[in-house]
Structure formats: C-alpha cells, structure tokens
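Students often ask why we bother encoding 3D structure as a string. The short answer is that it lets us treat folding as translation between two languages. Here is a chain of 153 residues written in the first language.
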Amino acid sequence: MSEKKDASVWQGFKAFLMRGNVVDLAVAVVIGAAFTNIVNSVVKGLINPLVGAIGTKNLDSYSSCLSSTCEGDRGIRLLWGSVLGATLTFVITATVVYFLMVLPMSKYLGRLEARRKAKESAHEVIEVTELEVLKEIRDALLAQQRGPGRDER
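And here it is in the second language, the structure alphabet:
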C-alpha cells in the first residue's frame, strides 16, 4: 500500500514539475537574477557616480543620526542612503520590465484579440448572408410549388 502511495506521490510531483507554469516560473527566476545584476551594475556604475557629483559615490554612506551622538556602534542611525539605492534599483527594474516586457506583450495580445474579434464578426456576417440566401431559396421553392398567379394564403 505504501509503495503504491509513494509511486502516486512521485508521479504527482513529476507531473507538477513538468507543468508549463513551473518551468516558465523557473526560467523567469533565472532571468530575473541575471537582470538584477545588470540593474545593480547600472546603479553602481551610472547612478552612484551622478549622485557622487553632489556628494559621496556610495549611497550607503548617506545617513542621519536620531540620537545626540552616532559614533561607532552607539546611537541610532537612519541609513536612508541604502533605502534610496534600493528604491532606485526597484524603479529602474520596474521601468525596464514594463517597457521591454509588459507593454510589448500587452500590445501583442491586444492585436491578437482584435484579429480574433474581426474573424468572429466576419464569420457572423457570412452566417447571416448564408441564412438570407437559404430563406430566398425557400421562398423561391414555395412560390414555385404554388404555381404562377396563386395567392400566398
């Protein structure tokens, strides 16, 4: 009994892994990790030097002290430079993902949907036209059966 249960659990797990969603998610995670390195390089190589023109190149060094003294480990230090750097990284990542992935994909899907709707409406027009032709054929056959000069009562 347990061997059969183990086999079904293994088969279920195998089916789960082979599902398209899981594979797509794994690919997305790997690409996301590689993309994170690119964004971090942009922040460290371009943004930080631009900020460095005003102050320090390293955003992590920007902080504020809440207590009277912040020397060494003493005092309460707010590291707002780190938060700023992480925020810039997030905004850059979100912008690139939106403009290079989400926007083109939504435009593509919109075009596909428009084509599908156009095809459906053309199909409906064809069906209506066929129906009209069939009605005309029916009316002609009825008129032919009644003969010339007879009423349609």
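Translate back mentally: The chain has a mean pLDDT of 79. Keep this in mind for the problem set.
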